[in-house]
Amino acid sequence: MKIVLAWLTEQVSWVGLICLFGALAYTIVALRAKRNRDYAQFSLERDIYHQRMTRAWRVSALFLLLGGLVAAISTWLAPSPTDLAPTPTPASGLYTPVPGSPTASPLAATTALTEVIVATPVPILTITPTALPTAIAPDLMQPDCPDPGAQITLPAAGSEVSGIVEVLGTAKINAFSYYRFEVLFPGSDAPNFVAQYDRPVENGRLGVWDISDPTRYPSGGPYRFRLVVVDIYGNTTVCSIPVIIATQAED
Asked: What 3-state DSSP class applies to 209?
């Protein structure tokens, strides 16, 4: 029922125009029938024109009544966008701490050191090769923003971000309700809730993304940062861009 009322709210202008034109058309028919009745010479003709005029007046009044009813429903009974919008459920568990490696006991370390010194008095230099960074496939660094009503212009796709990230772009679609930020961690398809805003934005500041905590957002990537715009019916329009989180010192 709420969806029907919301549709009537959007289409009230068209329905009002149709009712107005219908009432005007049948008013013209009624006036013509009245004029013909006044000039008719025979009583049978006058009766026919009188019946036609009566029907036209009734249909015209029906159009006016229908237009007023639709306007009243859209004004007093239509639900607000807050009633129609689904309540977003923030995803839990944004980051799972990895348990650290066990700490060796002082006794074991002392014993191992003693054995090495006795067996090999000359220290041995061990060279550990440095691992090269893994190259990221180019197709993973492309933005996915097909709808002009949901666009992210800053940060740019594939860029390196850190700290408090300011997000610029557009979140403005038909029947707009709200938009939210989400993030997909590397190798995961589960979106995690970041923030939500209730006002549409066109080519402006959408909000901020706080990634200053390295324990919550480890460096690397690519992360998929998503702008999700929701209309009053619950339909979503998504813009997704890949970003790399730069290495940042822990507090």
From this structure: strand
